[in-house]
Design goal:
Layout (H helix, E strand, L loop, with lengths): L1 H15 L2 H4 L6 H31 L3 H19 L5 H23 L5 H40 L9 H88 L3 E6 L4 E4 L1 H7 L3 H4 L10 H17 L4 E8 L5 E12 L5 E10 L1 H47 L7 H24 L8 E3 L1 H9 L2 H9 L3 E6 L6 E4 L1 H18 L4 E12 L12 E10 L30 H11 L3 E6 L5 E10 L21 E5 L3 H13 L3 E5 L2 H10 L4 E5 L8 H11 L5 E5 L5 H9 L4 E3 L4 H13 L19
Helix pairs in contact: 3-4, 4-5, 5-6, 6-7, 11-12, 11-17, 12-16, 13-15, 15-16, 18-19, 19-20
């Protein structure tokens, strides 16, 4: 209940209060409060006092008092409900009403009762509310009032109350006292009122200053809070940036390093340790000269000096560096010089990338392109030579069949045949170099090839020529098999051992070994080897070694260091390289002057078993029975040799010199088998010829003969139904077997319909 009444009073107080009462910064704030409180009390309590005094005033005929009190109450109501009126008017009105009530009491009951308190209150209120003007005005009004009262006493105005003579003297004494009291009170009240006002103004000023300072402090605190938050954000961003920077440094493949001006490592990321194979504790403080040898150390010093002296932005340099587990690696460095705020050099920083594999791949690619270019030329030459050698190899075989064993011509003819076969072997080297040779792959074992070579005539001839060279072998007993061409692999083995023997001037040793090896996926290799099992062939010699300037050229075609007059076409190592590439392997060479040479070859292994050799066939096994065979070849010698061989074998051959002639022949004649040359100039080639003949005779049997390579067009011809591919120059046995197998097979349907319309393809 109490709080409710307090709330009502507070609301009433605020509702009718002037703005200056509610505004502490108003100029007359405290005077407004005094005036408002006085009026509020007069309005609320005065009404009750008016009612209580009304009866007594009427009963005693105090009409002046009743009139003055009524006027005073109404005046207070007006002041209360019109707070927007000027303060001086409201203050003067209230003071006047107090004076009016006091005068009405004096006139009614005389000057010696309570009238003096009201007049005193009038003076005090005037001093408080109006200051010095009010004090002066109240004293003047009071003095005039006292004088008027004395005159009224003299005229016996209050004769019914007291004796005029005594009353005048008595009032004179009271007036003297009142004068002193009024003046002292007015002065003191006004002084204290002004001091209170000044103090209030000072307090307000200080309050305003304090508020301003407080606002400034609050603004500063807010700014400080913003700066603190901003610094926290910056610190967090810096921390995140540092973490991101560190994460990037620790996860990037390239190595980051910092080196002081003395050349010692001061900071680096994890990748540098991985590149070099050392821990952070081992590398920190290490001088780069302990990791880089001779010329490369000088090369690095020159790069750092150029950075230091020229002030260039960055220096790039490739160096060879020693690693713990990977031997010598090639690193590409990009370094910059770091300066302090004054521009003085403080350290070097940079990035390092291991480009060993890239460099090897570049060299491998350059070598492959060079081999491809030379091989293309060699392949074209080989094609023409094969056609030419067909007569050199074929005719002696035909002649020997008709000569008795005692005929003296057999020996020179046999020499011609062997010379032709050697020429064919050289041509085969050219085809291997061009990587267009016919690689007939079969399951074989490298140990078997090594044993066969060590028992061959070529090896015994080599051993006799290099009598002081020892040969040692260490062959793995459980060596895995490989899928490849035994002829090409044997030739490569022979070339490696022959080159090793040539490299030994006097006494020395050639060591041949085989081994099984599993290459892990993450294992660092110098070639593009996939994960899996490999057979490793190693040929090592104790010869004079390969000079550094020649190490990159040994696999180039026609490059040789052999003594003039000895065997050597410059194709040996090129053939080895091509053979290894054709078998999906990798060859590595390690050599140096006076340290000998080691060739290491990785070949993919297989779990398949070696097939048993087929028994030797006699001529009767592949003799014909008069079947009609059409020979299609643009070389007259080739047509003649093939015709004679087929005639000897019991067939009925016919020959034409072009594809168009073959198509025309097949329009009017039926043949049992086509012997097709692939490349014929001018006119259509073997594929187009076969397509047109298939359009005339679906299922026509055919075999392909070519001195070049098993190209995509040859493979397409085989897919259309051709039975076999025969490489020129061929022997009677190979020709007979191919023809016999093709004739005995069922007709093959083409995998795609042959084109009926003719087309011309330039060769």
């Amino acid at each position: 209940m109490r709080s409710r009444l307090l709330g009502i009073a507070t609301n009433l107080y605020r509702k009718y209060a002037p703005e200056a009462v509610l505004d502490p910064d108003a100029p007359k704030h405290w005077q407004e409060i005094v005036l408002y409180l006085f009026v509020l009390v007069a309005v609320s309590v005065g009404f009750l006092a008016l009612l209580l005094g009304m009866y007594d005033n009427i009963q005693h005929d105090y009409w002046y008092i009743l009139f003055a009190c009524t006027i005073g109450y109404v005046g207070c109501l007006l002041v209360f409900f019109f707070p927007e009126a000027r303060f001086e008017w409201r203050a003067a009105t209230v003071c006047g009403l107090i004076y009016l009530i006091g005068i009405s009491i004096v006139l009614t009951v005389g000057p010696f009762l309570s009238s003096r308190e009201w007049l005193f209150a009038f003076s005090i209120m005037a001093c408080i509310l109006l200051g010095w003007p009010g004090a002066i005005a109240s004293m003047v009004v009071s003095f005039v009032t006292w004088l008027g009262i004395w005159m009224l006493i003299k005229t016996d105005f209050w004769a019914h109350l007291f004796d005029a003579g005594k009353g005048a003297h008595h009032w004179l004494m009271i007036t003297i006292d009142l004068l002193f009291i009024y003046v002292a009170t007015a002065l003191l009240t006004t002084f204290f009122s002004n001091r209170i006002g000044q103090s209030d103004q000072a307090a307000k000023s200080l309050s305003r200053q304090l508020l301003e300072e407080r606002n400034k402090l609050a603004a500063f605190n807010r700014q400080l809070a913003l700066e603190i938050e901003e610094r926290k954000t910056i610190a967090k961003a810096l921390q995140e940036s540092e973490e991101k920077y560190r994460t990037i440094l620790e996860t990037m493949e390239d190595a980051y390093f910092e080196v002081d001006l003395q050349g010692k490592l001061t900071f680096f990321n994890r990748s540098l340790g991985v590149q070099l194979g050392y821990s952070g504790a081992e590398l920190i403080g290490t001088h780069f000269r302990t990791l880089v040898d001779g010329a490369h150390a000088a090369k690095l010093v020159r790069a750092f000096n150029k950075l230091f002296r020229s002030g260039s932005a960055a220096q790039s340099v490739d160096i060879e560096i020693r690693t713990r587990h990977k031997g010598i690696r090639i690193l590409s460095l990009l370094a910059t010089l770091v300066r302090d705020g004054d521009g003085a050099p403080v350290k070097f920083q940079g990035l390092s990338r291991d480009i060993t594999e890239n460099r090897l791949m570049e060299e491998h690619l350059q070598r492959a392109r060079k081999m491809e270019a030379v091989g293309a030329l060699a392949g074209g030459v080989a094609h023409d030579l094969n056609n030419t050698l067909s007569g050199v190899v074929g005719y002696p075989e035909l002649l020997l069949m008709n000569l008795p064993e005692t005929d003296p011509l057999r020996k020179p003819i046999m020499g011609i045949k062997k010379s032709g076969e050697k020429a064919v072997a050289i041509v085969q080297d050219l085809l291997t170099l061009a990587r267009r040779g016919v690689a007939v792959k079969e399951i074989t074992n490298l140990n078997t090839l090594v044993h066969e070579y060590l028992q061959s005539t070529e090896f015994h001839t080599l051993k006799a020529f290099h009598a002081e060279v020892k040969f040692e072998t260490q062959l793995a007993p459980s060596l895995l098999n490989i899928s490849g061409s035994p002829i090409h692999l044997s030739k490569s083995l022979m070339n490696l051992i022959s080159n090793a023997a040539e490299a030994i001037k006097d006494e020395g040793t050639i060591f041949v070994s085989t081994a099984n090896r599993y290459v892990e996926q993450n294992e660092a290799t110098s070639g593009n080897l996939a994960e899996g099992d490999y057979v490793v062939l190693t040929v090592r010699d104790t010869g004079e070694g390969i000079p550094p300037e020649d190490i990159d050229r040994i696999f180039e075609p026609f490059f040789t260091k052999k003594v003039m007059g000895r065997s050597g076409t410059g194709l040996g190592m090129a053939v080895v390289w091509g053979t290894v590439e054709d078998h999906g392997g990798h060859i590595d060479v390690r050599s140096g002057p006076g340290r000998g040479t080691t060739f290491t070859i990785h070949l993919p292994a297989t779990r398949e078993a070696v097939l048993q050799p087929t028994p030797t066939l006699s001529v009767a096994d592949y003799r014909g029975h008069g079947e009609r065979i059409l020979i299609v070849d643009d070389v007259a010698t080739q047509r003649e040799v093939a015709s004679k061989m087929l005639t000897v074998l019991g067939y009925a051959p016919e020959a034409v010199d072009s594809g168009l002639a073959a198509v025309a022949h097949c329009k009017t004649h039926k043949v049992d088998l086509l012997l097709l040359d692939m490349i014929m100039r001018p006119g259509i080639d073997g594929l187009e010829t076969y397509k047109r003949i298939l359009a005339l005779h679906p299922g026509q049997k055919a075999i392909i003969a070519s001195g070049y390579s098993e190209t995509e067009r040859i493979k397409e011809t085989l897919r259309l139904g051709a039975g076999a591919y025969l490489k020129k120059p061929y022997s009677m046995e190979k020709l007979g077997l191919a023809v016999k197998n093709a004739l005995s097979s069922e007709p093959t349907q083409a995998s795609e319909p042959p084109a009926a319309a003719p087309s011309w393809r330039p060769s």
